[in-house]
Amino acid sequence: ETGVTQSPTHLIKTRGQQVTLRCSSQSGHNTVSWYQQALGQGPQFIFQYYREEENGRGNFPPRFSGLQFPNYSSELNVNALELDDSALYLCASSPAPSYSLYNEQFFGPGTRLTVL
Amino acid sequence: AQTVTQSQPEMSVQEAETVTLSCTYDTSESDYYLFWYKQPPSRQMILVIRQEAYKQQNATENRFSVNFQKAAKSFSLKISDSQLGDAAMYFCAYRSENGQNFVFGPGTRLSVLP
Fold first, then answer.
1. Do B75 and B24 touch, CB atoms closer than 8 A?
2. What helix, strand, coil percent values describe chain B, rounded to 5?
């Protein structure tokens, strides 16, 4: 167990809807990253937050957005859902800034999103 | 942009034997970090081992070791004395020095045969 939790475990939405996924980091972890893992593939980096500010982003459109809160929780929001958004969404928290040598990521179990 | 390639979609090994998983990457950066992660059926990604690119010495963690060849951009994982609990998806990952880009390979599914 990494101490990182995600909710919900599973979620079913229809195309065009909006979804919010939640992550609770370990206490003291001020960096959180989100990943999309399509079935049978490796995780793809969506973005990263450090002290409530986005400080890195992968190749994802603006309809993927996030928030990080002072209580070590964070959200991933996806607007205008598309069928290809169906995937496992992972969050990972770290006790150190992204540029730190010791930026080891601790992953949550993920949220399985299905878009119909 | 950095890329990570794992050319073995599936591998199998007998219990107690040794197996090597391959990983190659492409980058123009000189300093970066490389990782091997394990993802069992429970889905929770677990860090197996990491290597700083500026270190020539290969990292070792108990039964897990790497062969890091910086010039060849190769980063293979060796698992010695394989155990049934080692069965999982293994992902090779690259992290840029500034930590703002993290790239995973497509993974290798490892089966351990009793």
1. yes
2. 5, 55, 45
Tell me: the pLDDT tens digits for A3-45? 899 999 999 999 999 999 999 998 888 889 999 999 989 999 9
How far is the alpha carbon of A67 from chain B, nearest alpha carbon, in Å?
17
Residue appearing with tokens 């969506």:
A46
- What is the three-class DSSP state of A91? strand
Taking contacts as CB-CB distances below 8 angstroms, the residues of chain B near A39 are none
Per-residue pLDDT tens digits for B56-66: 889 999 999 99
Residues of A with CB under 8 A from a CB of B: 1-2, 33, 35, 41-45, 48, 55-56, 58, 88, 90, 92, 97-101, 103-105, 107-110
Contacts of B38 (CB under 8 A, 6+ apart): B45, B46, B48, B86, B88, B89, B90, B91
Residue whose C-alpha is closest to residue A108's, from A17, A50, A30, A26 = A26
> Taking CA atoms, what residue in A is nearest to B10?
A40
* Position B77, amino acid: L
Contacts of B46 (CB under 8 A, 6+ apart): A2, A107, B37, B38, B39, B40
